[in-house]
Amino acid sequence: MIGNPTNSANGPEHRDAMLQTLTLSLEDPHGTLLGLDPVLEREGYSHDEILSAFGCIDDLLVAIAERKAAYLITPLTGAQRIADLDLVRRVLTEFGTLAWREYSSSIIALVRLMMAEGARSPDLRKRVYDAGPAAVALELRKFFSRAHGLGVLSVSDAHLAAEQLMGMLREPLYKALMLHPAGSATAADAVEPVAASIDLVLNGCARGQA
């Protein structure tokens, strides 16, 4: 088990270590149905430590959502040049694989925490949504817009293209929440559904160029 750091300092490094520990704890989505308390207890953190480092529980959850979003958009923001369709496909495949894996594990846990914690804080769900899913969708829209501006893709509505792709990549999240408990997803599990989702979107963009 990942333990609570012994360093009692409240500086940025300690806060980041706590955030990393709690974010990694969400890789197992099964223990989050009752709220955040079981997660904190499992990792050995007290409410006083969380309040000292983050200000409040809500800010912790927002920080986790921001961290997950920053991880997911790395392929999109790291692509400095979008030279051709093959590069677009590679970037989207890397992004899609990360998203599929996260929507199969830790994001399930984060959504369940929102379901358990959201009732006590009316604006918490919106804050987490803005910090997480909305931020990821924005970067995906920017990527499609860049590809369109460079003539690599023909995307008349970058917002719609991003929403269509994200909707398909969220399939494991929908299944886990609505149909059955989450299983252990691997990179191999994501290959076919991610490739199929990207092909659908890119084929539509190709038809737009005709």
Task: Give the key terms.
210 residues; mainly alpha; Tetracycline Repressor, domain 2; 71% helix; 0% strand; elongated; disordered N terminus
Write the layout of secondary structure elements.
Elements: H1 12-25, H2 37-43, H3 47-54, H4 57-72, H5 74-78, H6 85-103, H7 106-117, H8 124-131, H9 133-149, H10 158-169, H11 171-178, H12 187-209
Helix pairs in contact: 1-4, 3-4, 4-8, 6-12, 9-10, 10-12
Tell me what the CATH architecture is.
Answer: Orthogonal Bundle
Please report the distance between the alpha carbons of the first and last residues: 55 Å
- What is the molecular shape? elongated
Major sheet, described briefly? none
Structural class: mainly alpha
The name of the CATH superfamily reads: Tetracycline Repressor, domain 2
Share of helix, binned: over 70%
The stretches of 5 or more residues where confidence is low (pLDDT under 50) are 1-9
Structure annotation, total helices = 12
Rounded to an integer in angstroms, the radius of gyration calculated over CA atoms is: 19 Å
Stated plainly, the CATH topology is called Tetracycline Repressor, domain 2
Total strand segments: 0
**Beta strand %:** under 5%
Spell the H/E element sequence.
Answer: HHHHHHHHHHHH
In the CATH scheme, the class would be Mainly Alpha
Domain Transcriptional regulator TetR C-terminal Proteobacteria type: 104-202
Organism: Paracoccus nototheniae
Protein name: TetR/AcrR family transcriptional regulator C-terminal domain-containing protein
